[in-house]
What we know:
By secondary structure, this protein is mainly alpha-helical.
Amino acid sequence: MPQPVLFDEACARLPLFENLPADAPERLAAAGLGRGLLTATVRGRLRKAGFTDMGRMALATPAELTTVRKIGPIRLAAIRAHILAELAKMFPDARTFHAAETTAARRIDRLRSLPAERLPLSAAARTALGCACVGSLALALRGRRDCLKTNAVTAGELDEVVTAFVHALSHGRPRRALGTSPPEGEPTKDAAEALSARMLREREWEAAAPNILTDKA
């Protein structure tokens, strides 16, 4: 199985849905969590964590959502599909424009057109990663483990690169993490790294667990 790449880590710290119509979050919020979302236990955990409606979840990042117990990659995909189905009822082109594959493709296109020299990186990180020789997209498609194996770059320098990608892909607009209370510092980075590790461990596991949406806890 392929390992998650730095692009995956950056996307884990970006909103589940981007470029939503201005009234979409409010209209989604009016529907609460909707009908048929996962199980009562998981819905309760989402509400306790501050994700009380589909509007809040649509604006949340994968890293934020997966801090909720029992929300892993499979349930994250189910949440996204659930919200997308609701968006499709409101906006005719939602399924096309907001599909996960389309959103990822837009983000890749942004990195493809972004020179690596324009990334806000320290001189040490820039030198270690050879930014003068590669583009932003080529850098984003590198795996963290493969980079660390070279012993030419540190985990901290890779964290710096992922943060630079998040900044670039969000057009430089800061966002406050969603949940029951404002975060201190930047906990979403650690959550994103944890999600990346889980993605690597769980890809094979997912194929063998098609009924994971059934909660037996």
